[in-house]
């Protein structure tokens, strides 16, 4: 097990070990009786409840539950209620194995918590209905619920660690795949942006207002690439927001030109060229932001 898991187990044991040491022989006997007589019933109750949720049930089948999972869960209940002190470390490590398995196969942590609540409820009812002294029953309920809570807590911690590692691995692979194609992608998008710039300037100078979408940066090859591919690569990187804003500014300039009346101000070639230069410089800034992101990601990968 990794160091982080062992540290968490040590924290849990600060509660569990004193709780175990407080058990009297009568309480231990009652817990063993409940484990022997009720563990199968509690496992059945768990899965009957779980199958009521279709989002959770789709991960399971009745055959799998009948052949393996129900017996495994009954064994888990027995271990939690009757585990000896010297075996608690192995029991704790087992919870981490279970939590990691849940993460890999996609069993939600909330499903485990929901089912465990049913087990605890059934156990409380069974102890309440048994013919034992009140203090013994209360002590048994307290230990059983606390022990199950701590076991499930370790499962959830393992689930979180496993999910985090999987997410980091996926992110690393995604960036590795992207960085392998940066030179080619850079050249391709630079050419795309340059082509849009030439087309936009030509349309403005020639007063070609008929096809606005062909002139908008957001609808250009570069704009579509940025919206559908680049943003997916870099998620919500701050530079992505800056590029989005710059593209919006360019489109606003073009839309303003498209809807303006054809007066002397917009017929004047010098004014048109000045506006074209403004659009070109804005789009160039957009590309520079993208280049910075690429360089930073490539540098991070090499380190």
Automatic annotation (TrEMBL):
Its EC number is 2.7.7.65. SUPFAM superfamilies: Globin-like. It comes from the Bacteria. Signal peptide: none annotated. It holds the Pfam family DosC_2nd. GO terms for molecular function: diguanylate cyclase activity; heme binding; metal ion binding; nucleotide binding; oxygen binding. Residues 31-160 form the Globin-sensor domain. Gene3D superfamilies: Globins. Residues 185-261 form the DosC CZB-like middle domain. Keywords: Magnesium, Metal-binding, Nucleotide-binding, Nucleotidyltransferase, Transferase. InterPro entries: DosC_2nd (IPR048442), DosC_GS (IPR039435), Globin-like_sf (IPR009050), Globin-sensor_dom (IPR044398), Globin/Proto (IPR012292). Transmembrane segments: none annotated. This is Diguanylate cyclase.
């Amino acid at each position: 097990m990794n160091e982080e898991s062992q540290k968490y187990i040590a924290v849990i044991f600060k509660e569990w070990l004193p709780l175990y040491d407080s058990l009297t022989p009568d309480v231990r006997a009652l817990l063993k009786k409940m484990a022997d007589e009720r563990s199968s019933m509690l496992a059945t109750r768990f899965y009957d409840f779980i199958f009521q949720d279709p989002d959770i049930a789709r991960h399971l089948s009745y055959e799998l539950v009948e052949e393996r999972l129900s017996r495994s869960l009954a064994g888990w209940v027995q271990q939690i209620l009757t585990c000896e002190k010297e075996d608690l470390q192995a029991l704790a490590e087992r919870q981490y194995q279970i939590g990691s398995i849940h993460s890999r196969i996609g069993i939600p942590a909330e499903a485990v918590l929901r089912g465990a609540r049913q087990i605890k409820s059934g156990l409380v009812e069974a102890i309440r209905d048994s013919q034992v002294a009140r203090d013994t029953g209360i002590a048994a309920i307290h230990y059983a619920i606390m022990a199950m809570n701590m076991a499930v807590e370790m499962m959830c911690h393992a689930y979180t660690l496993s999910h985090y590692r999987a997410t980091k691995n996926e992110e690393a692979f995604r960036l590795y795949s992207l960085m392998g194609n940066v030179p080619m992608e850079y050249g391709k998008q630079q050419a795309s942006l340059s082509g849009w710039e030439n087309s936009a300037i030509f349309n403005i100078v020639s007063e070609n207002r008929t096809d606005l979408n062909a002139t908008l940066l957001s609808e250009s090859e570069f704009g579509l690439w940025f919206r559908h591919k680049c943003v997916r690569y870099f998620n919500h990187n701050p530079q992505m927001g800056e590029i989005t804003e710059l593209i919006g500014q360019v489109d606003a300039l073009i839309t303003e030109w498209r809807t303006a009346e054809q007066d002397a101000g917009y017929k004047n070639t010098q004014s048109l060229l000045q506006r074209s230069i403004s659009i070109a410089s804005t789009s160039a800034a957009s590309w520079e932001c993208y280049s910075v992101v690429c360089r930073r990601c490539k540098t991070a990968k090499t380190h």
